[in-house]
């Protein structure tokens, strides 16, 4: 079942700038979608429209079956938003800050639920601490707690780990995994490609207001990722022997490393032939390793190709 449905969504500002150009997107209940794109690609505009903060100029958005414009209150009640900017009342205590967010939705006080949220985010021990006394990472946890206080079905995380250290970032990943296990639908925008690679079910790529693709993470990496065979030679080569020319091989590291790129989905990789030819040429091999293209390399290549075609 689709929890979020976006159809032909457009946003054009008064000056003529088109932030979104007919975006179509469907997000299933309980999945994690990572939305990647360079600055100005339209990520924040898309999130802001779905969350009811920006009015679209065309298209339709439904959350949990409700239209975001015709049934604003119902859709907003289903959504939690963790913004990119940390904007918290510095002198208020953590507990009161999170309680207040629940009250904004007209919900009854629920101390047990708030305690559970704070414990899950490792904030319970900080419940009486003023916001100004918290570290940047703990303030981000408070933002997530505020977004969860009204028990949303959909959680938007706009660059949730920007500016936090690696350890805290991995803690955040565990928190997100726990929310997914409870059935929460999560849409994540991030500049940290490894974040998407670590926790997302599907990857969406947006650039210049258009969705370039939305695909299962693993199938995307299999379909578009290339592998490298990296052969460490026993003795350096000054040049490639004639028998090895014309195959796109690279000599690196002063002739000690031979790199062979190949399509991991192709019927033949060419590895067996390469190793046989190396032996026939009397070239001794010290070590062999393979390397898969990362999601970051795939993303950069895709965006550059799209810009070259524009």
Automatic annotation (TrEMBL):
InterPro entries the record matches: AAA+_ATPase (IPR003593), ABC_transporter-like_ATP-bd (IPR003439), ABC_transporter-like_CS (IPR017871), ABC_transporter_ATP-binding (IPR050763), P-loop_NTPase (IPR027417)
Superkingdom, natural source: Bacteria
Keyword Transferase belongs to the record: no
Keywords attached to this entry: ATP-binding, Nucleotide-binding, Transport
Gene3D superfamilies: P-loop containing nucleotide triphosphate hydrolases (3.40.50.300)
Domain ABC transporter, chain residue ranges per copy: 4-233
SUPFAM superfamilies documented for this protein: P-loop containing nucleoside triphosphate hydrolases
GO molecular function, one term: ATP binding
Pfam families linked: ABC_tran
Protein name according to UniProt: ABC transporter ATP-binding protein
